[in-house]
């Protein structure tokens, strides 16, 4: 008998206040094609230039809980929107810059099945070997980037991300400006908007890194204070008519050492494991899906949402029906915890070093900020 679920997943609000609508909404307004959607913060409507700052890992719940630490951030106009599923960087950033759900762009997680192997999306490697030649990024992820922009978009990001396969997949031929420090991010943005750039995309990953390494305690709080100062510094360099917009890709859940191991009752029917600890895909042997999903629900139904691929599609987790190409990257059964735990993949034990994690459909992971300020 299946164990009863004790939580309701937060599904992506595709077609509404979701990460997929941010880029089309901003660029559509900026270049005079469409008005901003009603859920977009009101300062955007008056913008002649827009700086979009993505704060990797900053969830709405974590921000609200620390309101006293981030007065500048919480002075912005706006509220929360949803991320996508899985709520993880590779998937969410690709959805942001394409304006498309994961089922369209095909970057469906951190570790993705590819020809019976696992492609690490962030490293763009197969079996630890650089896969940029074997798996060309524009073929793997074919959706157009920065929809609605007639110009090449300048991107201010970490200097060492420029040459990665993932950057090729989700930034394409964008004009990359590398920063080494927070101050360098501000300097890069100031130069670009001062030079007349209509739209600037800026990315900062400090919150995510600190949460993974140290959890959601004192180190996280101090990093949030610094990020709040970063937002203030960016506001200080905006020219008249410019607007700063801040969003994120996902939130975080403190997991620590709580890890679930998949037993032989499940693994006898599994050929491959992909995804991440809080969105674990099981690829099953032919004819074994029913047995695997039943075993998973019996064992883990009180701590995780257990779904087959078809159930996920029917419930709208991925934003549509996958093509044959994308479907081959998805597992047959997914385990997505609603408790603060993660599912182990023996082939990816590096995840065990992570204190806070993300990927599932809890409010803490799925709800992210969308805030805006006009220049002062």
Secondary-structure map with pairings?
Blueprint: H1 22-30, E1 49-55, H2 60-65, E2 77-82, H3 89-98, H4 102-105, E3 111-114, E4 117-120, E5 125-126, E6 129-130, H5 137-140, E7 154-158, H6 165-171, E8 175-179, H7 182-194, E9 199-204, H8 206-214, H9 218-236, E10 242-247, E11 253-254, E12 259-260, H10 264-267, E13 270-276, E14 279-284, H11 289-300, E15 304-308, H12 309-315, H13 324-327, E16 333-337, E17 342-343, E18 356-357, H14 363-366, E19 367-374
Parallel strand pairs: 1-9, 1-10, 7-8, 7-9, 12-17
Antiparallel strand pairs: 2-19, 3-4, 4-5, 5-6, 10-19, 11-18, 13-14, 14-16, 15-16
Query: What is the CATH class name of the largest domain?
Result: Alpha Beta
Shape: globular
Q: What number is the mean pLDDT? A: 95
Strand order of the largest sheet: 2-19-10-1-9-7-8
- What helical percentage do the residues reach? 25-40%
- Note the total helix count: 14
Beta-strand portion reads: 15-25%
- Counted up, domains total 2
Structural class by secondary-structure content? alpha/beta
Low-confidence stretches: none
CATH architecture of the largest domain: 3-Layer(aba) Sandwich
Strand element count: 19
For the record, give the distance between the C-alpha atoms at the N and C termini, rounded to a whole number: 61 Å
The CATH H-level homologous superfamily of the largest domain = Alkaline Phosphatase, subunit A
- The CATH topology label of the largest domain is Alkaline Phosphatase, subunit A
Radius of gyration: 20 Å
Q: Sheet with the most strands?
A: 7 strands, mixed
